[in-house]
Amino acid sequence: MSRYFFHVKDGRIAVDHVGLVFDNDDEARSEAMRGASETLLDNDMNLWLGNDWVMTVANEEGYVLFNLHFSIEQPKRNTPVILQ
To answer: What domain of life (predicted)?
Structure first.
């Protein structure tokens, strides 16, 4: 079992000093997705203020395993949809 840390940057920086313990990286990935989606549903992100939202997941050695990125772009009015 290893400890994983979930740091968040969204115009502010929230450093996770406690972390959570999981059996493996896959469980940490699932927790990151669950936590991010919960935050989205709670509308607790500063995305609408023009800030990117990034969750960095690190292991107990301090190495980054992955980053989750969310952002919102609001185009100018009457921008046509272009699908590629």
So the answer is: Bacteria
Structural domain count, the chain: 1
Cα distance between residue 43 and residue 84, in whole Å: 30
Evaluate whether residue 78 is within a structural domain.
Answer: no
- 81 in any annotated domain: no
Q: Has residue 65 been placed in a domain?
A: yes
Six-digit token pair at 71?
């952002």
User: What residues have CB less than 8 Å from 29, skipping those under 6 apart?
Assistant: 57, 65, 66
pTM of structure: 0.81
C-beta of residue 40 within 8 angstroms of C-beta of residue 70: yes
**Assigned domain for 66 exists:** yes
